[in-house]
Amino acid sequence: MKSRSLFFLGAFLLVTGGASLMVGTSGILPAEVLFGLWRGFDSPTTRTIILELRLPRIVLGGLVGGALASAGTTLQGLLRNPLADPYIIGISSGASLGATLGMFLGMTPFAVPAYAFAGGLLTIIAVYFLARRGQHLPVVGLLLAGIALGAFLQANVSLLMILGEEQMRRVVFWLMGGLSGATWKDIGSVLPYLAAGFGLVLWRSRELDLLAFGEGDAQRLGVNTEAAKTALLAGASLLTAAAVSVSGLIAFVGLMVPHMLRLIFGPESRYLLVSSFLGGAGLLILCDTLARTVLSPAEIPVGVVTAFLGGPFFLYLLRQYGKGELW
Amino acid sequence: MKRLVALVLLLILAFSSGCGFGGGAQEGSSLTPRRIVSMAPSNTEILFAIGAGDRVVGVTEWSNYPEEALELPKVGDAFNINFEAVLALEPDLALGIAGQEEAAARLEEMGVETVIIAPTTIAETEESLIEVGRRLGLEDEARAVVAEMEERKEAVLGRLSGASRPKVAVFLDPNDLWVAGSGTFIDELVQLAGGENLATAEGYFQISEESLVAAEPEIFILTYPGVELLESRPALAKTPAMLEGRVHVVDGDVVSRPGPRLISGLEEIARILHPEAF
């Protein structure tokens, strides 16, 4: 049952990605796209649009959606909190501040993502050390430190925006998030970190399940809880920081996709992580496609579409399964 | 701990080298651009003003002046450029504004020469007009436009004796008291028109009702209709401006978009501030 559902998710991803490649503002016909992919494109403009605009946007959308969803799954398990999302531990605020500082220092658009990434990672390290008590990392402390530091850093971003009139617009665009300017270079930058992050959390997926019983019980079952928590946190942080640095803050995916898939797949982390990645990837591609076609040539912020679609769909799922609990 | 720091720095370094020094900025073509995309309404106005209107193939939403621009294909809005729409028009030049650096870099990467102009004063606006004119081979036309701007500006200044400088506040949003402070175009227009801008902080900001009332403003200017919103505040309603009914609405586009119409804005504000001189 589970592998069949995984297969379905994979198929959903491929179909969504493929369909997304066929549609867009410029009115290129799907037939032209297919022909071009198979035999080569006649028009260099069409070629650029399909291969340099749409395709990287779709691929990056899949990677970011998958990263956010699997980070969300990991953090919900690690923090034992169904309301956790990838941004709750402060990474997104740190990345925003990094990006803002980068812009204020006059960095080129190519360097800003690196600043965002740095900001995100440095923040989670600070949160880690703030929360740690000796050799022990209490998850409540992690949550609280993350929220507190995140709020503080976010306030710094707001302050900088008020003080720095000229850069404000640029910062606002960045914060709104989205996949609009996605390039193959962006994909190349984040792929290693996404792979490393996902690898880490998948490696420790068994421990993630056992931690759900509570750390005391997990330890009695032989789990090295501190090592597991650190690895899971590191993995989720890499996934989130990499995603945010190239696509800004896209809300909802990291919070809802794990819940949606948990209702279908159950809570076993091994399957849940992989299905979250596939599901998050497919969902974000779908939402981004709608975002860029529904009101064409205007683009709706993708976070609006994800919330619009995801919310009601999740409620529907809840009713279908007749469960009141999200766990 | 040290190892952790080293690891993190290594990760960050690797990330930034991956981002790389892309830029593939194409060699600036020396050919005169014939298909231009305007990435902001102010640039649309500039392009049409210097006679390049027939070369504009795409504009962003809100490019509402001149009227011909309303018919042109849209490429998104200034906050979110639709790259696919831009590329589909096969432009050889895109004209952007401050804040669009990311979009500009992306367009350059895809082979579209993109120039960003970011004037903050009338003088800089005139320079931008000439710069754009030069790039389009319309330098003479641009200089003519600038000359006319200067002439009209001098005409306005000439009529002002400089005796009194009424105290003015210009609202962008009368509901939340957003005003135009120092360094904005509106501020420059108010000062040139012989007024004292009570919004002394820099940029656009929310002024405190208290400080506004304490300054005893004589004239209120609104960039969008909404006098009732000011009237509903009891303290403001007692200011000289409100009591004497010296509250005026102007077209927000005309007084804040960098372009030739700034001078029309100047004329309008001067007439409001010093009706006796016109």
What does this structure look like?
The complex is a heterodimer of chains A (327) and B (278). Chain A is mainly alpha-helical. Chain A has 14 helices and no strands. The two termini of chain A are 20 Å apart. By secondary structure, chain B is of the alpha/beta class. Helices cover 44% and strands 15% of the residues of chain B. Chain B contains 13 helices and twelve strands. Chain B has helices at residues 2-19, 41-49, 83-88, 101-109, 122-136, 139-159, 185-192, 209-214, 227-231, 234-237, 240-243, 252-256, 261-273; strands at 36-38, 56-58, 76-77, 80-81, 93-97, 114-117, 167-173, 178-180, 196-197, 204-206, 219-222, 247-249. In chain B, strands 7, 8, 9, 10, 11 and 12 form a six-stranded mixed beta sheet that branches. A four-stranded parallel beta sheet of chain B has the order 2-1-5-6, sandwiched between helices. In chain B, strands 3-4 form a two-stranded antiparallel ribbon. In chain B, a hairpin with a 2-residue loop joins strand 3 and strand 4 (80-81). Residues 18-28 of chain B have low confidence and may be disordered. Classes of the chains: A mainly alpha (327), B alpha/beta (278). Chains A and B meet through helix 3, helix 5, helix 7 and helix 8 of A and helix 1, strand 3, strand 4, helix 3 and helix 4 of B.
Quick structural overview:
By secondary structure, chain A is an all-alpha fold.
Could you outline the blueprint of secondary structure elements for this entry?
The complex is a heterodimer of chains A (327) and B (278).
Chain A: H1 2-22, H2 30-39, H3 44-78, H4 91-104, H5 112-131, H6 139-163, H7 165-176, H8 184-203, H9 205-211, H10 215-220, H11 225-247, H12 253-265, H13 269-293, H14 302-321
Chain B: H1 2-19, E1 36-38, H2 41-49, E2 56-58, E3 76-77, E4 80-81, H3 83-88, E5 93-97, H4 101-109, E6 114-117, H5 122-136, H6 139-159, E7 167-173, E8 178-180, H7 185-192, E9 196-197, E10 204-206, H8 209-214, E11 219-222, H9 227-231, H10 234-237, H11 240-243, E12 247-249, H12 252-256, H13 261-273
Parallel strand pairs in B: 1-2, 1-5, 5-6, 7-9, 7-11, 11-12
Antiparallel strand pairs in B: 3-4, 7-8, 8-10
Helix pairs in contact in B: 5-6, 6-13, 7-13
